[in-house]
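Sharing a chain and its predicted structure for anyone who wants a worked example. Both blocks are below, sequence first, tokens second.
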Amino acid sequence: MQHSQASSAWRTVQRLSLAGFGLCAVVVLAGAATRLMDAGLGCPDWPGCYGAPLVPDADRAQAHSPGVPLEATKAWMEMLHRYLAAALIAVALLLAMHGARLRHRHPDYPWRLTLGLLAALMLQGAFGAFTVTFKLWPQVVTLHLLGGLSVMAMFLWLHLCLRRLAVGTSASVRPRRLTSLWRLTLLSLVLQLALGGWTSSNYAGIACQGFPTCNGHWVEALDWGEGFHLTQAVGPSYLYGQLHAEARSAIQVGHRLGAGALLACLLMLAWRHGRERVVRPWLVLAVGVGLAQAALGVANVLLWLPLWLALLHTAGAVCLVASLALAAWHWRWSSREAAPRSFERLTRIASPVGRPAGRPAGCRSG
């Protein structure tokens, strides 16, 4: 009976972590839609909307904020994003509650990762408030995007840790440390995501018309200093952006250069480790998603940034983060001793549930 209850609890945390990963991806996409619809200030306050938990009628909104007329569609989009984020925090709290019990039965439970995930979500909530109170300040918007993608990666990593513990792993099997090439690729990914957030928050998505040139020139007049001035003053509002054309063009060109650097790193990584059976599918997936992202970026420029295509570009970023995280995970655990192990055992979605046999070194407990 106790073994059955333990197995049920183990399945619960696995399902919660996977649900958190999926819901976080939805939250990131909802945030992108909010930004692309210019709905980031659809509600002038936080956490309510015009002082109410639901979008109020025009009269109540006028009484609360006379200088900010209600646009119901934008307000509902902003509140939908907040409701989804609140649901995500609830998932993390449930994970922490179950984890608090399981970590006493299983010393190898990834408790620190669980607490780190919850802390990251709390910080994300603060950045959500700052996004409104600082009136879409690009620094805050960009960090909010990076935080959302980081939380998503943490949910995925936690799920992989829990699955590995559930199938039972010998404590003698140790993960490999990431090489310089892996670290360079992950750093390139983070920088490119930051450039994407900076491009979007400064409304520089179509600052350069045409591709591969920028506004018909190979060497356009670019204001790099102003485009990447990270200590600019706050306010009064960054809706639709404040930078001049040359600064926005510099941001767009920087994003293109970042895409090229990331693709180069992904291709080098695939060339270096493509012969390793366990990691090959994930590296192929990461390279494929990277190439698709580049194509979507070009299409967004040539088609003048339609909403559906811009959302697809954000979805590509989500897939790129997930695919590279999966590639890194499988590479770390595909050591020379572990490589002959069944690939299906490491990658199937529904894994057997049982008492963990050892502590994988890559999933530290508290």
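Comments welcome. The radius of gyration is 22 Å.
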